[in-house]
Amino acid sequence: MKRVVLLIVLFSGLFFVHCKKDFSRRPVVTTGDFDLAVAIAHGTLVDPGTREITNHGFCWDSLGEPNLTHQTVYLGPLSSAGNFQALIPGLSANKTYFLKAFISYESEVLYGGMITIATPDLPILVTESVSEITENFAVCGGNISSDNGSPVLARGICWANEPNPDTTKYRTNDGTGTGAYSSVLSGLSANTKYWVRAYAASVYGIRYGNEVVFNTGQSATAPFISTTLATGITQTTATSGGNVVSDGGSPVTVRGVCWSATPYPTIENNKTENGTGTGTFTSSLTGLTPNTTYYVRAYATNEVGISYGNEITFTTLQAPELPTVITTAITEITQTSAISGGTVTADGGSAITVRGVCWNTSPNPTTANTHTTDGSGLGAFTSSITGLTANTKYYI
User: Fold this and answer.
1) Distance CA 396, CA 386 (A)
2) Weakest-pLDDT range from 16-25, 271-280, 286-295
3) Sequence-distant (≥ 6) Cβ neighbours of residue 14 within 8 angstroms
4) What angle do CA 179, 185, 187 make, to 5 degrees?
5) Rounded to an integer, what distance in angstroms lies between the CA atom of residue 247 and that of residue 279?
6) Which tens digits make up the pLDDT trace of 89-132?
7) Per-residue 3-state assignment (H helix, E strand, C coil) for 140-175
8) 231 DSSP assignment
9) In this structure, is the dihedral angle defined by the CA atoms of residues 300, 305, 308 and 309, taken in order, positive or negative?
10) pLDDT one-digit tens code per residue, 215-257
11) Global model pTM greater than 0.70
12) How far is it, in rounded angstroms, from Cα 118 to Cα 120?
């Protein structure tokens, strides 16, 4: 609050008023929006006043109006006006919270306005069926149909040899986001019962899918194989391959990769054959179309059946196009010479091997006419045009 002291002086029939002001100002802080997707709160120090801000942050509670006796994030001193933000940890899904920004100075605490936060529910997901079961391996996966407004930060499969497995037991980590994913469960014991659940974690917690139960086998099964990432990609070729981790208890008689321009290729599509047995192998993919996305899976066959590895994708390179070049305006014209040149602005995906200017007394000259050779590559170049005839019109 400002204090104003008025000194009224009577002098020569006139009143003179002297105002003395107290320039001490209290800070002003406001509470901003809350980003539900990532649980980040925002605040603004509108005016630091004339006080030294010793700390700032956010406080919150689920029962009513929060203060510093409740859950609090401290962000330290603040020297100037501006926005600030912080991750609010430990919030539960599908619950209401009340939150304020705050600043403290001297022995006082000032709060911004209170906002109400309704946290989203946890992701929605299902556990897929278990397949390709051997004595020590199995393939399972999940499908996250919705993140309910909070991004999926981790997903995978967890398993144990007792009901209700969770992420404190054995688990895979299969990326982030929604959609379907596949997981390899390795290191299993033969002839053992396992309980499996898909999981999806957001900033508000972990949700588990339905529980699936399976038994590892003792008899022969289809092989277990993984697909190698594509390398050496050109317009029409690429290299991939696979790793036959287990033959399922029966010798692998043929192995290779298959590919298609649509998902989930099989050996009914294009394929290679790359030997027999377990272990790694390399496959050459040929006859591809430029600038096309391909889907690839390794495969392996034994007496039980055929197994496919995980699906990978790659896109072939785009076929090169003609370069883009601009002709430079003509200067230093004499009776027999002139200066021009150009700028190669794009190589069309293939290195520029030669550049220059060409000219003729007829329109649209080409390199079949008189021309210069002025280096290679992108960028500007200068060309000397010589051997011209006086008083003659040329096209360049």
Assistant:
1) 12
2) 16-25
3) none
4) 165
5) 9
6) 999 999 999 999 999 998 899 999 999 999 999 999 999 999 99
7) EEEEEEECCCCCCCEEEEEEECCCCCCCCCEECCCC
8) B
9) negative
10) 997 767 899 999 999 999 999 999 999 999 999 888 999 999 9
11) no
12) 7
DSSP notation for 12-33: TTEEEEEEEE------EEEEEE
Q: Which two tokens stand for residue 314?
A: 């790659």
For 208, phi and psi rounded to 5 degrees?
A: -110, 150
Which among 43, 112, 109 has a CA at the least distance from the CA of 81? 43
Q: What is the rounded distance in angstroms from the CA atom of residue 23 to the CA atom of residue 372? A: 77
Is 47 in contact with 25 (CB distance < 8 Å)?
yes
The mean per-residue pLDDT over the stretch 174-199 comes to: 94
* DSSP codes of every residue in 322-363: --EEEEPPPBS--SS-EEEEEEEEE-TTS-------EEBSSS
Residue-averaged pLDDT of the chain? 91
Residues 88, 73 contacting (CB under 8 angstroms): yes
Instruction: Classify strands 270-271 and 306-308 as parallel, antiparallel or unpaired.
Output: unpaired
Q: Are the beta carbons of 189 and 216 closer than 8 angstroms? A: yes
Confidence (pLDDT) at 2: 38
| Short-list 102, 135, 107, CA closest to 32 | 102
d(CA 334, CA 29): 74
How many angstroms separate the CA atoms of 113 and 367, rounded? 75
